[in-house]
Each structure stands twice: as structure tokens, then as C-alpha cells.
């Protein structure tokens, strides 16, 4: 499929994100208004608009005033079917009846981006064109058992990483008496090394056969890690109990080892007796046939090959058990090496105390959010509810401003077309700040955010309930302008980090997220009748990296203070100007209108032409015709040699399969025979007591056939 050619114009280039493809930065300009690019509004069409839904979702007075100014007339809800524009929630739109030049302010499938579950599934899917780990914290939609299992394993692995990071920080700071016990560190090291093991390290010998690796955290390992308290690292009752259990296990293993050594010596005596008997028979003239000798030789080679595989498997298993024997400087070197490998992950610095945030998948304004670092409480809260939840990695190293308070950034973006994908970016954003200082020491009431919500959340609806909230105070209105935030960043970083890093990263994330869901959005047949305004929420960490939190479908455009009163109304007016008005012939004048607030073109993708359709059916991609046979001279058909060759190959393959099955059957019979003899000998030695099959299988001595009868009489 070829893309339509477009005239060469000046491009809009954004800084590349780590791991980004070069195609993302190729952005063509010359993006006119929606009306100019599609010519969807004929001059003789009746201009009727309809407003539906909750009046608090946006400043509807501004919407009504802007449309009336442009010559529109308002129609009654439910009566005006020939409208040109309908503004309201998605549920009030009849998608089947839409046809150009009608416009609605929603895309039919926008839930793929504007719900927490849809955003998590689409950004982290394998079909996504960008690596979401660079800008979107790990997130799991807990709607099925497999997702809950994956989240639990990720939570446990993350807890092991936090333990290693905290222990290494204690060691470097010299806090030796107050750090974690060595048993805890060795356990966490085993869990992390098992997770980091790649396929190359699993190949065994020259056979290139990979052993089956279980990446799950074992129960006894999680018993130790789950009892870790970061506030009191020296206390771990599970570790002490495990030490006693390990001591008992060592004593039991020592007794088994002594018993097996005694058993091994006895079998060696029996084997030597059998070999001597065989040699005596050979001297007497009882010589084995050539066929029997060959079979014995093949059997010896197979046993040597099996022993080599077993040795390689034991070595690979011991490589995971080696950390359990480390201590002192060697243990510190092993932890440093493992953490060096983990630093390559883009979200390594987000994790300190293994904190996760649980959100209802379809909630708004911070309702139902839980911040927790306990796996059982997270799963208990997510089960048995009327809605599904998403659990996302909490950003534990946020950039703190206004003292030591968290903040996030609300940025507006607008999509006016999906073919070609056309994105606009509002020229200014605003910052929302938490009411209290950020802290990880105490979570307060762990089952609700009634108290800790003032520390960990920044929603204006929640901040209004704080006793010190004051919309007229610059600090206690909990909102900052972009200019004030940019000045603070300049003072902290020593350079214009807003212009050089944060704002370009926000633009890059907007484009990447919309490209990830563009295919889902275009599944609707009437997507050409839609446009949509999105509210993006970003957070900045202490390293000035930008992270996407969520995307809102109807962003709150009601002014809640002096900061938003300047932005909200202007954002709506500029949105309609971008949709309906042609670009201004004087660019300098357009930049000064509305106090420099405007939607600037951000991205325009290639236009994909639609396939033509006939009146009766679509295109037929089938191939019609008849088979052409090669010409041949008259006479008998000479295909016998090829048929004989094919039959011969089939027979050879069948012979190989039969030989393999016969060899495997002999091996299984020999194993069963050896196990029966060992069990019989063990009963003789232990006086009727039984020994477990794994212990019998660990013995390397084979009981010869010549001594089968002597076992019963020994």
C-alpha cells in the first residue's frame, strides 16, 4: 500500500527519547484547520449545534458563546438530528447515524486511551510501536487470574530489588548494625539472579537443549522477603525461623549422606563381585557375541552422555544456589554486580520501598485510589469489587517543589484527524501540587486515602478539602503557573530544563501514546466525523524524567482559581478556532492573540488512501486461471525412480523412529530394574526400613546383571 504524496514543507522536530525510532521525529508541518483540510462545512449547510451531558464537564457557556459567535444556532436535545456539531459525553452520540459534515467531540473507541485499563493494555502491548517503559510506569489490569499472577510475581521481584538497593546503601553509609540480615540478602540475590538468567546460560553442552527454568518466587523465599521491614531492617522473625529450619535440614541431609555412602560402598562390593564373575566366565570360554558387544558399547556411550547432561544440569542449579554461601566482601560484590545489571532498566530509579498505587479502571478525580506496599492488602482490596482495578508502580522519587511537596502537570492536546493523524499541543499548562509534604515513612490509614491523599495525590477536588486550602494564596491554592514552575526549575537545575528536557519529553509522550492507539481509534467507520480534546497528566522525577500518569477524555475545564481561570476558557476558544478557522495569514499576530495561548501543530502523520470499492462488492484479490502442465513426449510416464526414492526415504525415517523407541524402552527397563535392586538392597541394609526414590536415584553405582540373584541372598 503506497502513501499519498504530500508537498515538501518545513518539519517539526522533537528531541528523540531513549530507544525511540527515527521515524517518530519526522514530522511534517503545514497543518491547516480541520475545515480547511477536510472541507467538511459547506456554506449552504444549516449550522446547528447541540450540547448534552453534565454541565460541569466543561465550561459550556464558553462553548455556547463561541458557537453562537460563528453563526451557529442551538438546537434542542433530541430534536435536532441535522446538527453540524454535538458537544457532550460519548454516551449521548449515535455513532451509526453520523455522516459528514457532522462533528462530535469524541472518538468512538477513545476508551483505549482515556481509561486506565485501556491505556495500560495498549501502551504495554507487543504491537505498540514504542517502548512504553521509557515513559509509563509498569501497570497491570487485575481483571483476570493470569494478570493477578503476573503482578504478584513482579511485586515479589520488585521487593527483592528494593532489599538489595537498601542494603547496599546501608553498607556504603556504614550503617552495618542496622541493616538487613545476610540471609535476607542472599535470598533476595537468588530471586533476582533467577529472574536475570537468559537463554544462553540455560543451554547445556553441545546439544543446545535448554532446561526448564521456573522464574516464580518460592514460598520459603517470599516468607523471608515479605517479613522485611524497611523501617526496622534488623528485625525479621521469618529469617530467624528459616535459620532454624535450615539447621534441621542440614542435619537431616548429613544423616542421609552417611546412609547413602554406606549404601554406595555395599553396591561397589556387589559390582566388583559381578565383574569378577564375568571375567571368570570369559576365561572359561563363554565369550559374548559381536552383536552383544556392540550393544554393550552403545549402552556405555549413552550412559556417558546422560551423565554429562546430568552434570551440566547440576552445575546450572548450583549456580543459583551459590549466593546462599556468600558472605562479607564477596556478598557485597555479588549485589553490586546484580544491581549494575538492573540499572539498565529505565524504571530502576522509581523503586525504593516497593510501593504500588491501586486505581479503579474507570474512576475520575482520585476516587477509590489506594497507595500500598503490602501484596496481600492490595489483592484483598482489588477482589470482590463491583469494578476492575489497575495496579501501577508508584513513582517513589518525585521532584519535590514548594518545600517538599509532590506535583503533577496538566497538559491539553487535541486530535483533529486520524487519517492523517493530526495532533495539536496547547502552548501552556499548569501544575497541581499536593497539600502536605511528601513522605514514605507512614501511610496512615492503608485502606483509604482520606489522610495520606494530601501527601500522595494532587487532584484539585481533594486539595479543596484540606483545612489550609485558600484559592487566593499562591502556596495554598495548590496550583502553579507554567512560568513560575519554569523559574523554579531554572534555579534548581542551573539551566532551562523545562525548555530543553521536560516540555519536549511531554510532546514526545503525547505523540507516542496516540500512535499506540491510532489503529484502535480508526476501527470506527465514522472517525472522520470526530475530534477530541485530551487532558494529559504527567509527573517529573528527581532526575527530570517525565512519566505519563493518565489521559482524561473530558478534561476538567471549569476554573478553580486564578491559574485555571486564565487557561480554561481560552483553551476552549482556541480549540474551536483550530477546528473551524483557517490559519492566519499573519503568524506574528496569531501568536499574540489571547495572551500567547493557542494550539500549536505538533504532529501530522502520513495519509493512507482508502481502497476503492465497486458498486456490488469490494476488491477481489483471488487469482483465476488453470494449472499449466509441462509438455512431454508420448509414451509411458516415468515416475518410478522418484517414487522409489520417496518410499526409501520414508522407510529410513520410520526405521530411525523405531530404533529410537526401542532404545528408549531399553533405557526405561534398565532404570526400573536398577531401582528395584537398589530398593531391595536398601531394605536388607536398613532392616526393613524404606528409603525415598530420589535418594536411590542419586547413587552412581550400577548393579550388574550378573549379581541380580546375589542381591536377595546378600
Automatic annotation (TrEMBL):
InterPro entries: TTL/TTLL_fam, TTLL_monoglycylase. Gene3D superfamilies: ATP-grasp fold, B domain. SUPFAM superfamilies: Glutathione synthetase ATP-binding domain-like. Residues 295-305 have a biased composition (Acidic residues). Keywords: ATP-binding, Cytoplasm, Ligase, Nucleotide-binding. Residues 1-38, 272-325 are annotated as: Disordered. It is found in: Cytoplasm. Residues 306-324 have a biased composition (Basic and acidic residues). This is Uncharacterized protein. The lineage of its organism: Eukaryota, Sar, Alveolata, Dinophyceae, Suessiales.
Amino acid at each position: 500500500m503506497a502513501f499519498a504524496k504530500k508537498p515538501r514543507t518545513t518539519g517539526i522536530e522533537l528531541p528523540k527519547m531513549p530507544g525511540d525510532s527515527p521515524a517518530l521525529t519526522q514530522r511534517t508541518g503545514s497543518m491547516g484547520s480541520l475545515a480547511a483540510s477536510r472541507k467538511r462545512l459547506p456554506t449552504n449547510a444549516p449550522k446547528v449545534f447541540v450540547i448534552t451531558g453534565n454541565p460541569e464537564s466543561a465550561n459550556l457557556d464558553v462553548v455556547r458563546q463561541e458557537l453562537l459567535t460563528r453563526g451557529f444556532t442551538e438546537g434542542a436535545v433530541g430534536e435536532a438530528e441535522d446538527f453540524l456539531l454535538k458537544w457532550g459525553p460519548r454516551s449521548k452520540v449515535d455513532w451509526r447515524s453520523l455522516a459528514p459534515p457532522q462533528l462530535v467531540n469524541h472518538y468512538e473507541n477513545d476508551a483505549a486511551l482515556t481509561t486506565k485499563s485501556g491505556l495500560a493494555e495498549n501502551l504495554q502491548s507487543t504491537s505498540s510501536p514504542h517502548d512504553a517503559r521509557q515513559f509509563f510506569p509498569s501497570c497491570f489490569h487485575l481483571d483476570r487470574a493470569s494478570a493477578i499472577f503476573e503482578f504478584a510475581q513482579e511485586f515479589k521481584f520488585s521487593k527483592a530489588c528494593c532489599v538489595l538497593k537498601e542494603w547496599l546503601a546501608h553498607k556504603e553509609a556504614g550503617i552495618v548494625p542496622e541493616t538487613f540480615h545476610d540471609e535476607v540478602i542472599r535470598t533476595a540475590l537468588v530471586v533476582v539472579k533467577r529472574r536475570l538468567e537468559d537463554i544462553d546460560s540455560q543451554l547445556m553442552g553441545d546439544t543446545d537443549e535448554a532446561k526448564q527454568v521456573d522464574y516464580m518466587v518460592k514460598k520459603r523465599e517470599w516468607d523471608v522477603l515479605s517479613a522485611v521491614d524497611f523501617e526496622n531492617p534488623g528485625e525479621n522473625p521469618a529469617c530467624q525461623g528459616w535459620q532454624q529450619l535450615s539447621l534441621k535440614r542440614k542435619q537431616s541431609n548429613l544423616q542421609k549422606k552417611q546412609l547413602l555412602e554406606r549404601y554406595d560402598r555395599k553396591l561397589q562390593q556387589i559390582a566388583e563381585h559381578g565383574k569378577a564373575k564375568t571375567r571368570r566366565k570369559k576365561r572359561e570360554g563363554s565369550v559374548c557375541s559381536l552383536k552383544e558387544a556392540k550393544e554393550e558399547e552403545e549402552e556405555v556411550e549413552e550412559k556417558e552422555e546422560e551423565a554429562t547432561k546430568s552434570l551440566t544440569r547440576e552445575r546450572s542449579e548450583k549456580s543459583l544456589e551459590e549466593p546462599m554461601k556468600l558472605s562479607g566482601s564477596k556478598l557485597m560484590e555479588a549485589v553490586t554486580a546484580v544491581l549494575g545489571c538492573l540499572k539498565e532498566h529505565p524504571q530502576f530509579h522509581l523503586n525504593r520501598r516497593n510501593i504500588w498505587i491501586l486505581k479503579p479502571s474507570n474512576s475520575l478525580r482520585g476516587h477509590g485510589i489506594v497507595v500500598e506496599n503490602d501484596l496481600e492488602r492490595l489483592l484483598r482490596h482489588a477482589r470482590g469489587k463491583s469494578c476492575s482495578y489497575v495496579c501501577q508502580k508508584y513513582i517513589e522519587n518525585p521532584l519535590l517543589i514548594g518545600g517538599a511537596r509532590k506535583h503533577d502537570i496538566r497538559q491539553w492536546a487535541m486530535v483533529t484527524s486520524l487519517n492523517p493523524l493530526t495532533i495539536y499541543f496547547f502552548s501552556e499548562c499548569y501544575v497541581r501540587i499536593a497539600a502536605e509534604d511528601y513522605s514514605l515513612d507512614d501511610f496512615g490509614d492503608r485502606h483509604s486515602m482520606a489522610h495520606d491523599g494530601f501527601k500522595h495525590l494532587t487532584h484539585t477536588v481533594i486539595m479543596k478539602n484540606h483545612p489550609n486550602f485558600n484559592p487566593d494564596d499562591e502556596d495554598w491554592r495548590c496550583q502553579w503557573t507554567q512560568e513560575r514552575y519554569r523559574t523554579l526549575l531554572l534555579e534548581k537545575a542551573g539551566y532551562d530544563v523545562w525548555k530543553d528536557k521536560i516540555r519536549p519529553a511531554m510532546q514526545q509522550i503525547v505523540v507516542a501514546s496516540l500512535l499506540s492507539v491510532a489503529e484502535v481509534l480508526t476501527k470506527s467507520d465514522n472517525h472522520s466525523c470526530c475530534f477530541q480534546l485530551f487532558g494529559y497528566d504527567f509527573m517529573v522525577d528527581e532526575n527530570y524524567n517525565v512519566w505519563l500518569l493518565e489521559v482524561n477524555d473530558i478534561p476538567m475545564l471549569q476554573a478553580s482559581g486564578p491559574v485555571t481561570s486564565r487557561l480554561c476558557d481560552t483553551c476552549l476558544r482556541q480549540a474551536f478556532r483550530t477546528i473551524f478557522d483557517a490559519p492566519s495569514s499573519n503568524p506574528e499576530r496569531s501568536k499574540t492573540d489571547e495572551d500567547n495561548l493557542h494550539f500549536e501543530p505538533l504532529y501530522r502523520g502520513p495519509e493512507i488512501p482508502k481502497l476503492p470499492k465497486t458498486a456490488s462488492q469490494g476488491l477481489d484479490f483471488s487469482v483465476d486461471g488453470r494449472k499449466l502442465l509441462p509438455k512431454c513426449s508420448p509414451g509411458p510416464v516415468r515416475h518410478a525412480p522418484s517414487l522409489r526414492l520417496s518410499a526409501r526415504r520414508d522407510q529410513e525415517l520410520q526405521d530411525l523412529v523405531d530404533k529410537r523407541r526401542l532404545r528408549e524402552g531399553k533405557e526405561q527397563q534398565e532404570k526400573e530394574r536398577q531401582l528395584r535392586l537398589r530398593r531391595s538392597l536398601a531394605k536388607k541394609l536398613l532392616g526393613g526400613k524404606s528409603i525415598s526414590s530420589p535418594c536411590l536415584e542419586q547413587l552412581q553405582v550400577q548393579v550388574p546383571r550378573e549379581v541380580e540373584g546375589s542381591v536377595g541372598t546378600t
